[in-house]
Amino acid sequence: MIQSIIQLDDEEDRILNIVKAKFGLKNKSQAISLVAKIYADSFLEPELRPEFLEKIHKIKQQTGIRFSDVDELRQHIENA
User: Fold this and answer.
1) What pLDDT does 46 receive?
2) What angle separates helix 28-43 from helix 10-22, to the nearest 10 degrees?
3) Tens of pLDDT, residues 24-55
4) How many whole angstroms separate alpha carbon 36 and alpha carbon 5?
5) Are 16 and 28 in contact (CB under 8 A)?
């Protein structure tokens, strides 16, 4: 666990106290951790699972069916 000394202004301190009270946390460290987790979940891009990346790669390698016009597509769909 990393310990840090931080400086907060009055408004930031009040916000942490509100978060602490709202979620029933024991101290401001837990409030800061919760705020950081919520920020990470909301604004940072999630990592993609390797299985998903592999599936996308396979889909990209597939070849599609070309149709000369809409009627040919419709005929293909109706016969499927």
Assistant:
1) 77
2) 90
3) 999 999 999 999 999 998 888 878 888 999 99
4) 16
5) yes
Measured at the CA of 52, the angle between CA 51 and CA 54, to 5 degrees, comes to 65
Rounded alpha-carbon distances, angstroms, from residue 10 to 17, 21, 53, 59 = 11, 16, 46, 53
Chain centroid to CA 53: 16
- CA 68 to mean position of chain CA atoms: 40
- As a 3-state breakdown, the chain gives helix, strand, coil percent values, each rounded to 5, of 65, 0, 35
**The two three-digit tokens of residue 13, written as one number:** 């301190």
Residues 68, 21: Cα–Cα separation, whole Å: 65
- Rg value, the chain, Cα: 26
